């Protein structure tokens, strides 16, 4: 059923209907559309535009529809164009012509902008919960391997020894930034466009402030033209989700490498691996690979929406209908990837012996030699040169740094006394890195404690917001 028709003498051509139809994807906005209709109804009633009797009938029908949409008893049909027209059909089927009353003072333009904000807030809160679950899995693993020496890499080459718990914890910091962004985004997205009408507000005695409050928004759009055309919240959400995807992809890449036969550090649980249809020995890290691969589509969704918004005239243009599928897809994608990665992290075990054996290899203790000289007041540039000579010497003799003789050390630099041996151990290198955020066991323990309290605070913050949102939805 079209929501217009008075001035038209023909039905839209099939091709037009097929092109412009959105109900098959925007149907998921139905609960938010019904909830905002209830808020709009209250205002129509309190302003006297609808009698109490009519308002009561519509309210009852809207509540029935909420339940029927949830249970699937009411669904869209082949002739519905979008979620708004399908729900108006539902209302009219129940009430006859008074079912069309809610369109007073409201346009699909402010309606869809409101619905999409509500949906995005709901989905973003769910995403935050899933990110927190992954952080908890990372923190549990980090605590488990908080005392396991391994080697860290730069340029994928052995760099310096680090505790493996330190490696795992780094990912939780990245997700902290994502949660921070989500919280900022929530504050900025909490603006109600309802009341903007088609673009200019309304001549009817409505109260956009009242509907904003009823729907849990902090503010009301300050400009009705901007209110109906602002999709910054969509683009920003897509950026946040793409960034989460990037963080997941880096975990994915790390897991793929650590699970290779060459590394053999990570052993992913069978339940989070897949096999090969031809090679019976294979155990493939598909979760890690999909985490890596899905980042591409999340970035694509962001790019697509930014391109659609670029140069778009104000106020509403049908182009804006193209905001939904990418947004839905990004939320859906992360709803799949986050729990899978969480499970993969939680069930992976790491080979302590292999990591410990790798810790001093590749002359990863060379910085210790340079730092030793710096403590003896040798300028770092000279210290670096001397440490480099020690590496060259050890390499030419086919030995490790700690196997260099006292005499050879002294010949490289007189300040390289036998005391150098005290720092030429993985343990010495690790325990000396006590700076804030460093890899010393005490520093890592402190880092994990801080992270834990930060994650707990995020968890409390988001669960309060989830509760408030679901309270609003069921009001
Ligand atoms: N399905 C439309 C969308 O998603 C709803 C708004 C339609 N507004 C209009 N003036 N045709 O954007």
Automatic annotation (TrEMBL):
GO MF term (any one): argininosuccinate lyase activity
CC per GO annotation: cytosol
HAMAP family xrefs: Arg_succ_lyase
Taxon lineage: unclassified sequences, metagenomes, ecological metagenomes
Pfam families: ASL_C2, Lyase_1
Xref: NCBIfam families: argH
UniProt domain Fumarate lyase N-terminal: residue ranges: 12-300
Domain Argininosuccinate lyase C-terminal: 363-430
Name this protein carries in UniProt: Unannotated protein
A Gene Ontology BP annotation from the UniProt entry: L-arginine biosynthetic process via ornithine
Source species: freshwater metagenome
PROSITE patterns xrefs: FUMARATE_LYASES
Coiled coil: none
């Amino acid at each position: 059923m079209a929501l217009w028709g008075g001035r038209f003498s023909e039905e839209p051509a099939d091709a037009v209907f097929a092109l412009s139809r959105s109900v098959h994807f925007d149907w998921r906005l139905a609960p938010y559309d019904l909830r905002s209709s209830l808020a709009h109804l209250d205002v129509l009633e309190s302003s006297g535009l609808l009698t109490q009797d009519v308002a009561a009938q519509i309210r009852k029908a809207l509540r029935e529809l909420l339940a029927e949409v949830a249970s699937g008893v009411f669904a869209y049909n082949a002739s519905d164009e979008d979620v708004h027209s399908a729900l108006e059909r539902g209302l009219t089927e129940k009430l006859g012509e008074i079912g069309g009353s809610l369109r007073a003072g409201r346009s699909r333009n402010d309606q869809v902008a409101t619905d999409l904000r509500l949906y995005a807030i709901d989905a973003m809160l769910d995403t935050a919960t899933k990110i927190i679950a992954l952080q908890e899995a990372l923190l549990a693993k980090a605590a488990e391997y908080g005392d396991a020496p391994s080697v860290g890499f730069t340029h994928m080459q052995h760099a310096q020894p680090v505790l493996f718990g330190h490696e795992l914890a780094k990912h939780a910091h990245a997700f902290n930034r994502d949660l921070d962004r989500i919280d900022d985004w929530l504050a900025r997205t909490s603006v109600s466009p309802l009341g903007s009408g088609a673009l200019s507000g309304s001549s009817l005695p409505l109260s956009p402030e009242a509907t904003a409050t009823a729907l849990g928004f902090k503010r009301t759009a300050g400009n009705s033209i901007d209110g109906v055309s602002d999709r910054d919240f969509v683009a920003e959400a897509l950026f946040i989700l793409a960034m989460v995807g990037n963080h997941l992809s880096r975990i994915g890449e790390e897991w793929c490498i650590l699970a290779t036969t060459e590394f053999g550090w990570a052993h992913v649980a069978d339940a989070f691996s897949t096999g090969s249809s031809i090679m019976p020995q294979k155990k493939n890290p598909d979760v890690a690979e999909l985490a890596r691969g899905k980042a591409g589509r999340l970035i694509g969704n962001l790019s697509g929406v930014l391109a659609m918004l670029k140069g778009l005239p104000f106020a509403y243009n049908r182009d804006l209908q193209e905001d939904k599928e990418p947004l839905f897809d990004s939320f859906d994608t992360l709803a799949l990837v986050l729990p899978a990665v969480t499970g993969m992290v939680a069930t992976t075990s790491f080979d302590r012996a292999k990591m410990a054996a790798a810790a001093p290899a590749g002359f990863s203790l060379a910085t210790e030699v340079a730092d030793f000289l710096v403590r003896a007041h040798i300028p770092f540039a000279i210290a670096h040169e001397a440490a480099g000579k020690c590496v060259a010497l050890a390499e030419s003799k086919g030995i490790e740094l700690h196997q260099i003789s006292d005499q050879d050390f002294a010949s490289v630099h007189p300040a390289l006394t036998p005391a150098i041996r005290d720092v030429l151990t993985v343990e010495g290198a690790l325990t000396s890195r006590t700076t804030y955020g460093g890899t010393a066991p005490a520093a890592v323990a402190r880092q994990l404690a801080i992270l834990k309290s930060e994650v707990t605070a995020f968890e409390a913050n988001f669960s309060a917001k989830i509760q408030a949102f679901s309270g609003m939805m069921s009001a």
